[in-house]
Write a structure and sequence with these properties.
By secondary structure, the chain is mostly helical. The protein has three helices and no strands. It has one domain.
Length: 77
């Protein structure tokens, strides 16, 4: 299992890829359930970070598959 720092680095990298290459997806990131917890003090766990990363990766990869004309190079993070 990856460490918290490794997951945070992967999240940062994919978020920057989305913001730089596909800014039209930024609105979906902000609306993701994992970014809007329903708890007052949610605990950040490795599982939560991994789920968030997987969600970001799915959004990006689905967009690339559905819009190949807008994806010059598929970014695998």
């Amino acid at each position: 299992m990856e460490t918290e720092n490794e997951l945070n680095a992967k999240i940062l990298k994919i978020t920057m890829t989305i913001k730089d290459k596909h800014p039209e997806l930024s609105k979906y990131i902000e609306e993701m359930k994992v970014t809007i917890p329903d708890e007052n003090n949610p605990e950040i766990t490795l599982r939560n970070l991994n789920t968030y990363y997987d969600s970001l990766n799915a959004v990006l990869n689905n967009y690339i598959l559905e819009h190949p004309d807008k994806a010059s190079v598929k970014t695998k993070t």
